[in-house]
Amino acid sequence: MVSTDTKHLKLRGNIWWYQRRIPKDLQNQFEGQTTISESLGTGDIREARHQRNILNGRLEERKFNAPNKGRHRFLELVQEMSDHQSQNPESWDEPYDLDKASKDGDEVFIHAYTTVNGRKDHRSRYTISLKEALNVWIRKFESDKTQDTISKVKKAVDNFLKHLKLYDVLLTDISKRQVHDYIEALQATYAKTTVQGQISRIRSIWTYCESLGEVSTASPFDGHSYTGGNNTNRKQPFTVEEIQWIKENVATREPNRRLLVELGVFTGCRISELCNLQMQHVVTEGDITAIYIATGKTDAAERVVPLTNELGLRVRALREGKQNDEPLLGFDNSSEMSRWFSRIKTENISTDSAKCFHSFRVMFSTAMQQAGVDELKAAAILGHKRGRTMTYGYYSRGYELQQLKEAYDQCVERIIW
Predict the structure, then answer these.
(1) What InterPro entries does the annotation carry (predicted)?
(2) Location of each CATH 1.10.150 domain in the chain
(3) How many alpha carbons lie under 13 Å from residue 336 in its C-beta half-sphere?
(4) How far apart are CA 189 and CA 186, in angstroms?
């Protein structure tokens, strides 16, 4: 007997299409879309059914792994019922109609009730998911972290979930083996430090949720081994010839992008730090002009960096007539600027990934060392960890701008440009 199974299938011309309504509890994942209509690219009904079954399976998987919408209501009910129980141990459940909840199919209420009365603890079903945890982390740290950092943490979570082939996952369901396998997969393509950075970003979410009491088990992101040496993909300086090409060709008719590059060369600042500069971050003291790095990759990144007199004049000119919170260079997307510079570098200078905008930082640091600049002053300008003793690390207010400018000028003479 020939099968007539064409559920969720529609023939248009001689091509089968997959068509079905999106389940209500999944519509929030499809940005308001209520139906799926997708060409299966085949006129063979057997192949169409096979693809249909795969797509149906993926929808069910997304439904199974979707964030638990009843989580917050469950927690509130448990808290409310627990309060009643502590106040009236004998009659705490009188206000609650379990029979009605059963008739209505109110699973969240039933789970909360049976958790509090001790019949069965359902708390494990309502723990926080990774995407929920990410949003909690962002709300806490978005004012303290740069947009670049926030973006990298989001991407780390997204990549991890793609590896798991899940839309979302409960934090407590993430196993150490899953993290191990993810690290192994990353190490096939990326350098050791890059892989460590990816795991560290997701770990920071777990750690924050642990501090909130959302998770109490051991972190699956701890205790892993990473292959590759510490110098893997270490950034390399540009050669004299490469710097000369950059000087003569890059953004010669784009003042703000040109200034971005020159600030990279003459301050050693990270590209994200420069893109995050606002008009209010220009510091002036007499004839000295500096830029204030408010936030960066580490806690030590906050600092004041002097500029050459010529760069100082150009930066001051940008500030005139502008609002304090306007971007100093006219853009604040460091990823876009990094890609812009990378394209130019790859097409005209070198395909070596160890050479990039960060190479300017390597070269500036080298110039500091070659000029004999005091290491604590160099660290203060570059935004490295400094002052490890109690005297310098806790009580010291740091160097005066004039002292930093003297050390800076000592270094600038050795910069190739």
Answers:
(1) CB, DNA_brk_join_enz, DUF6538, Integrase-like_cat_sf, Integrase_catalytic, Integrase_recombinase_N, Tyrosine_recombinase_XerCD
(2) 130-211
(3) 8
(4) 6
Q: What is the pLDDT of residues 326-374, one digit of tens each?
A: 999 998 788 889 999 999 999 999 999 889 999 999 999 999 999 999 9
| β strands within 252-324, DSSP E | 282-285, 288-293, 303-306
Residues forming CATH 1.10.443.10 domain(s) in the chain: 240-412
Fold of 240-412: hpI Integrase; Chain A (1.10.443)
Neighbours of 137 (CB within 10 A): 23
- pLDDT (average), residues 154-179: 90
d(CA 276, CA 150): 13
Q: Report the alpha-carbon distance of residue 171 to residue 168 in Å, rounded.
A: 9
- The partner residues of 327 in beta bridges, in order of sequence, read 278
Determine the CATH number of domain 130-211: 1.10.150
296 token code pair? 């960066």
Structure tokens at 19: 């068509």
Note if the pTM is more than 0.85.
no
Q: What is the pLDDT of residue 61?
A: 67
The values of phi and psi at residue 52, to 5°, are: -60, -45
Integer Cα distance of 81 and 84 in angstroms: 5
In the three-class reduction of DSSP (H, G, I as helix; E, B as strand; rest coil), residue 222 is classed as: coil
Reported confidence tier of residue 283, pLDDT bands at 50, 70, 90: very high
> For residue 363, which of 232, 238, 234 has the smallest C-alpha distance?
238
How is the beta sheet containing 9-12 ordered, strand by strand?
A: 9-12, 15-21, 35-39
* Cβ 291 vs Cβ 281: under 8 Å: yes
Residue 294, pLDDT score: 86
- Best CA proximity match to 263, nearest among 245, 282, 249: 282
The amino acid that residue 338 corresponds to is S
